[in-house]
Amino acid sequence: MQLKDIYTPEVICCPRDTDALAAALLMRQHHVGALVVVNDIKDDRTPVGVITDRDLVVQVMAEGLEANSTSVASLMRKPVIIAHDTEDIGTVIERMRSHGVRRIPIVDHTGVLVGIVTLDDLLMQVVEEANALVQTNRREQKDERQLRR
């Protein structure tokens, strides 16, 4: 299955000059745990980083930085780990594992942000596929019982 079949198209973004306080407010307002940092929200939605609620806690609060004067550009994970919408979910699961990230921005063939996929999205897909396999096995058992009557 390809990412374009499961990614979330509504991505909350911010430009790299956004301060940590504004980023936290955006996360709260939209009920998300991460923002994709882009070059320009309107014209150039090319991902340049990701900032998470954990980044804000560990890097801003725990270090006593001023949230209203610390830019997300100084906090975001670089380089940004991305995936293309046509990639297979297995490939992206491996990329998440190898880079230790829980969220990956999804881009189209031009590199423009089209969505985001999270560890939870991928886990749900894997569980659905595993459930389909279990149902196949149960169906086979049911058919066999009916045949043997």
Please provide a written account of the structure.
The protein is an alpha/beta fold. The protein has one domain: CBS-domain (Roll), CATH 3.10.580. It has four helices and six strands, in the order βαββαβαββα. It has helices at 20-30, 53-61, 89-99, 119-147, and strands at 13-15, 34-40, 44-52, 83-84, 103-107, 113-118. The strands form two sheets. Strands 1-2-3 form a three-stranded mixed sheet. α3 (89-99) links the parallel β4 and β5 (103-107). The longest helix has 29 residues, at 119-147. It starts with 12 loop residues before the first strand and ends with a helix.
Name some characteristics of this structure:
149 residues; alpha/beta; CBS-domain; three-stranded mixed beta sheet; 4 helices
Concise account of the structure shown:
This protein has 149 residues and is an alpha/beta fold. It has helices spanning 20-30, 53-61, 89-99, 119-147, and strands spanning 13-15, 34-40, 44-52, 83-84, 103-107, 113-118.
CATH topology, by name, is: CBS-domain
Largest sheet, described in full?
A: 3 strands, mixed
CATH class: Alpha Beta
Number of DSSP helical runs: 4
As a percent range, the share of strand residues is 15-25%
CATH superfamily grouping: CBS-domain
State the order of secondary-structure elements, H for helix, E for strand.
EHEEHEHEEH
**CA distance, first residue to last residue:** 39 Å
Q: Please, what is the oligomeric state? A: single chain
Strand order of the largest sheet: 1-2-3
The average pLDDT value, as a whole number, equals 91
CATH architecture: Roll
Output the structural class: alpha/beta
Number of domains: 1
Gyration radius, in Å? 20 Å
- Taken from the alpha-carbon principal axes, the silhouette is elongated
Residue windows where pLDDT falls under 50 for at least 5 positions? none
Q: Let me know the number of strands.
A: 6
Helix content: 40-55%
